[in-house]
TrEMBL record:
Designated name of the protein: Kynureninase
Coiled-coil portions: none
Catalyses which reaction(s): 3-hydroxy-L-kynurenine + H2O = 3-hydroxyanthranilate + L-alanine + H(+); L-kynurenine + H2O = anthranilate + L-alanine + H(+)
Role summary: Catalyzes the cleavage of L-kynurenine (L-Kyn) and L-3-hydroxykynurenine (L-3OHKyn) into anthranilic acid (AA) and 3-hydroxyanthranilic acid (3-OHAA), respectively.
Pfam family, one: KYNU_C
The organism of origin for this protein: Asanoa ishikariensis
GO terms under cellular component: cytoplasm
E.C. numbers: 3.7.1.3
Keywords: Hydrolase, Pyridine nucleotide biosynthesis, Pyridoxal phosphate
Entry-linked SUPFAM superfamilies: PLP-dependent transferases
Pathway(s) annotated for this protein in UniProt: Amino-acid degradation; L-kynurenine degradation; L-alanine and anthranilate from L-kynurenine: step 1/1; Cofactor biosynthesis; NAD(+) biosynthesis; quinolinate from L-kynurenine: step 2/3
Length: 416
């Protein structure tokens, strides 16, 4: 007997221990199905209120006196991230700059810590900015960027990393959750393999922070970066975070020597003397408004609990895969994500994925398109319901049955 998928979705929502968190977000379009929270998270209600206070009272009234509280905001958010979202210790995470800038800082510091080694290792499906930054670091230092091939649907494997390692590798830099497929890499296994070869490891956590457990401490991870505007819901352009293992902090020196990384910054001394803590990886004035937005977003994830978030994200993805199996395989779709071991998104391959993504937007479903020919569907556990997944896939099925996607051009321009 066929499963009543709508009834199943309603039952799963009724049993969802995180259901109440949806009310913590601004959702002004009840008919909109939002499948792109893994690119930009929704606005938390608390953030809107907190930023109004920061602008009206702290900036508007307190003026420069606000720095009495703002000066420690980066570490406050970092410590909350460390304890609630990442498996790390206080004093190992701080907030500031963009993911690309933080990746650059840590990559250079890591290469400097392995003099004589001439190779940086990454994979060909790593996020573009990671590959570009690493390519630039390698070029500036007359090093080689060794790019190992990886399956875009399965992700990088421990076996392939082991095969690419040798005693000339200074740094291994990979994404924990693949941006295209959502595949979760073996963070602990790859870290151990890199350490056995004498290399340091730098992980990109952009698609894992706030979506899946990140065992930095137990895996002995050296370095990591991540953004706050996806599953941590800190808003467009929100600052990135970086992680440096405690035992490495005093031995690594990052390349951008700014006054916020100085040991006694307000002494205004004549020479740079880096702070003996994670603060040495800061550069300039921290983003206060973005920092407050990150704080509010991380507080929501902390209240929900990363294990419960991961469990719901997995269940949402499993439900989506079931709907794909039943409804979409007859229409030429192929699953471009692992059936297990995923982050909080599922990717489908179709030759007309671009046109289908535009038809979905016309049907009030916001997906994400990724090359080559992939429809990426993100399920943010704090506010995405099982009925949202049902509704979004039902609209997708209708589009395919009616072939309404054919109204859109394959050259990524809309046709009316």
């Amino acid at each position: 007997m066929p499963v009543d998928r709508l009834t199943q979705a309603q039952r799963l929502d009724a049993e969802d221990p995180l259901a109440a968190f949806r009310d913590e977000f601004v959702i002004d379009e009840p008919d909109l199905v939002y499948f792109d929270g893994n690119s930009l998270g929704r606005l938390p209600r608390a953030t809107r209120s907190r930023l109004r206070t920061a602008v009206d009272q702290e900036w508007g009234v307190d003026l420069v006196r606000g720095w009495d509280r703002w000066i420690g905001l980066a570490r406050e958010v970092g410590d909350l991230l460390a304890g609630a979202v990442l498996e790390a210790s206080p004093g190992e995470v701080t907030l500031g700059d963009s993911t690309s800038v933080n990746l650059y800082k840590l990559a250079v510091a890591a290469c400097d810590a392995r003099p004589g080694r001439r190779v940086i290792l990454t994979d060909d499906d790593n996020f573009p900015t990671d590959r570009y930054v690493l390519e630039g670091v390698a070029a500036a230092r007359s090093m080689t960027l060794r790019v190992l091939p990886s399956d875009p649907d399965i992700g990088v494997t421990l076996a392939s990393v082991r095969e690419a390692l040798d005693d000339d590798v200074a740094l291994v830099s990979l994404s924990h959750v693949a941006y295209r497929s959502g595949a979760i890499a073996d963070l602990a296994g790859i870290t151990a393999a890199a350490h056995a070869a004498g290399a340091l490891v730098l992980w990109d956590l952009c698609h894992s922070a706030g979506a899946v457990p990140v065992p930095l401490r137990s895996a002995g991870v050296d370095l990591a970066v991540g953004c706050t505007y996806k599953h941590l819901n800190a808003g467009p352009g929100a600052p990135s975070f970086l992680y440096v293992r405690q035992s490495l902090q005093t031995s690594l020196r990052q390349p951008i020597w700014g006054w916020f990384g100085q040991q006694d910054q307000f002494a205004m001394g004549p020479a740079y003397d880096p702070a003996p803590s994670v603060d040495r990886f800061l550069v300039g004035t921290p983003p206060v408004l973005g920092g407050y937005a990150a704080l509010c977003g991380v507080q929501l994830s902390a209240a929900a609990g990363i294990d419960r978030i991961f469990a719901k994200g997995t269940a949402l993805g499993d439900f989506a895969v079931d709907l794909y199996d039943e409804w979409l395989t007859p229409h030429g779709f192929a699953l471009a994500s692992p059936r297990s071991g995923r982050g909080a998104h599922v990717t489908l391959h179709h030759p007309a994925a671009w046109q289908i993504s535009q038809a979905l937007r016309d049907a009030s479903v916001i997906p994400d398109y990724r090359t080559p020919d992939r429809l990426r569907l993100g399920f943010a556990p704090l506010y995405t319901r099982f009925v949202d997944v049902y509704e979004g896939f039902d609209r997708l099925r209708t589009i395919m049955e009616a072939e309404s996607w054919r109204r859109f051009s394959a050259n990524r321009s809309r046709v009316t």
